[in-house]
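Exam revision sheet. Question 4 asks you to relate a sequence to its structure. Input first:
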Amino acid sequence: MARPDPLRPAARTRSRTVVAQPVVDYAVEAYNLRKLYRTRAGKQAAVDGLDLRVPLGGVHGFLGPNGSGKTTTIRMLLGLIAADSGYIQIFDHEVPLALDEVIGRVGAIVEQPKFFPAFSGQKNLKLLAKAIGAPRRRVAAVLDEVGLAGRDKYRNYSLGMKQRLAIAATLLKDPDLLIFDEPTNGLDPAGIHEIRSMMRSLARRGKTVLVSSHILTEVQQIADTVTIIGRGRLLAEGDVNQILASDGHVAARVRVSDHLRATDVLTTAGFTVEPLPDRILKVALVHHKLDLAVITQLLADQGLYVSELTPIQPDLESVFLDLTAGQHLTAREERRHHPTRRPPQQRQRRGEHQQRRPERRRQPELPERGGRP
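Answer key, structure tokens:
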């Protein structure tokens, strides 16, 4: 199946007004999404002209730092909040206008689901199946699919078991599209491996899995395609392999006898050099493909001979850092750098001032009429 275009800068995305016809089938299409929230500093965009295209089938990673607008976007896709502007389509149905016609084909985990602690996983799912009109026979099937017996009480579940039960709950309706928002938060390595394996298994069955995460290396292991966002804007989208191949920041590990002299030589030649343990250098050339022969020649001309020269393969994390270089993309950093917000000391003093105010307004008690003062 064809994939979306591999890389698109955010600046072009924001200025585009006409969207080209897609060349593949999509489970989810969203164009020019925008969502504003009121803050003390005024209106701020949680999602700012975002495009999102999720190909039909496979695992699609929805990536970005905390506060970049991932959860807000997912809530708009599910009709939990309304977009201020933009267009959303799920399986050829406009959302939220035709949400009722398509919601039965969608299963989602946006926040930690609530289950009855004193009930077993099986009983919790039976109650849920009855509430949503799913066949009771699906309960045993989905518990088996996620590897849970379902007989233990929910309060005794580990965090990984709770997350698997949540996934089982989304499978009761046998949906075609599954949306998971940060599904591995707080899990140990074994739990993360289980969730990853489960998502790949769902994709092999023909399901479309949209998974959001801020851990790029984790998603790289399971995703077929990705969308990378920052500050509510599109940074890149496309096939994982194509995005990695298009990365212009390629590095190499270099071991040389005199690493200090080698650092001076390579830095003077325009390379970026980062010292690593054991006198190894990480050498990179920003926005250019790295020619290992050039490194060898430069060092040899200065009497420095290389004992190790190993290319470092790019990953999604390096691509993301390159795309976001120099930008404050998280909501926390945006607040930290906003000039109009009061510092914590002023907020504290104002709170103390308000607490003392009733004491200053207290009036002396007056004697009753006819009494003595």
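Marking note for examiners. The CA atoms of residues 81 and 230 lie 20 Å apart.
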